[in-house]
Amino acid sequence: MRSDIEIAESIEMKNILDIANKLGLSQDQIEQYGKYKAKISVEQNPKKDSKLVLVTAINPTPLGEGKTTTSIGLADGLSKLGKKVCLALREPSLGPVFGIKGGATGGGMAQVVPMEDINLHFTGDIHAITTANNLVSAILDNHLQQGNELNIDINNIVWKRCMDMNDRALRYISVGQGGPTNGVPRNDGFVISTASETMAILCLSQDMADLKRRLSNAIVAYNKDGGPVTIGDLGCVDACAIVLKDALKPNLVQTLEGTPAIIHGGPFANIAHGCNSIIATKTALTVADYVVTEAGFGADLGAEKFLDIKCRVAGLNPGAVVLVATVRAIKYNGGVAKEDVKQPNMDALRKGICNLEGHINNLKNNFNVNVVVAINKFITDTNEEIDFIRSFCEERGCEVALCECWEKGGNGSIELANAVLKALDKPCKLHFTYELEDTIENKIKAIATKIYGASDVVFEDKAKESIARITKIGKANLPICIAKTQYSFSDDAKKLGRPTGFTMTVKDVEIRGGAEFIVPICGSILLMPGLSKKPSALGMTIDDKTLKIRGLF
Length: 553
Known about the structure:
The mean pLDDT is about 95. The longest helix is centred in the N-terminal third of the chain and has 21 residues, at about 125-145. By secondary structure, this protein is α/β, with parallel strands linked by helices.
């Protein structure tokens, strides 16, 4: 069986000018990064009749369930049906690529290319985010060294440095060591670039003016009187914006079948909102009739944040939501160990199908969106298992389609594409889970009870103190971005299936003044991943002469 990278290398890519031409883009609207990548600059003016489709999933296994692969396959399927379509996806982070998770360019016959470029440095966006973020840290520490006119409390600095690599040794560090000429000694730490507020700011900004406004409002520390200190107070907003000016422009690439794909931004979905940039999505809606986008992790995290945060900020209204389900994930939620999910097990399937049902009910009843279940087929799935899932969805009045895009590309997604088109014919108006004017506590409780199935929420003392401070500085009316495990509806990764009636615990609450959302911390959430005992990097090679890469996938 060929690897993903071998499949990608076997396809002759089209020149990026030809891909741009499919979207009606002129040569003046693109900046080429070689033959197969480009930045695009288009005045965002979404068509009134353009259709937005969100791809999300049930709670995943640790193996991943193929949201990106399904998104790519769906776009190729719509293209085969003669639709003017554009993908709008997130950029991969280098850390997971060299760790264990892998990249984010799909798989099999449903990939975006050039996959090795996209999974590695791409057009340098994440490097620019890293540089802008660390510029703030450098200015901040220099401010302390030069007299600390802002009266910053060095024990209450919340801005972290970042890098785009998994490195657990950098989670908690000390800086300013080595004497007075080397800075003010203090505790610090790194987060991975995709978990930084700088990444979230870029993805939620609608233009350069909005980017600068958000940067200016980002809180880096608190002064000794307890008041917030922002990037605007440090005076380096424009310097950061200069570093980010090209990163603000979306990137244009293509699928294996030549469908246009805009890939831009990639915030984590457990600590941030987990969606590509607003600029990318609105640009796609401007140049295409159908736009397929995705949100990270399961629908309880990614889709909720896409709908309650991104759609609210950007004024988006998805016409359909594709809910990716796999036989193995349903069996995993039915209690089967991840090592055994490939084995037929109808009892576990019947037990775990409640997870799929929970997500269907949330999307239809809470958000009022049209749902299409996509059964992402793996070669180990049996007809009996697939038929059971299909019947289960049909009995609940839900569109359902088998997706075989990994094996067959766009041809394996025609059934799904037709089901999505049918769903798009039905009217829908997005409902939000809470109102911004609600208290922080009530907004958190609304998500926990309506989406997760909790019966109550307990706020620990640290969380209560943080809520009081956020309210005091006038930021209580922001959206909520809950940080919790992706493996369960609840805040406990071991509670699989569709847990209900549990009590969710909020340990702390953080404010992202620039991204403009509030982050309740539930459970143990790491912003800097670590590497596994045998990271993927150890198995990668590059040929001395041809420069062909192996082991990337």
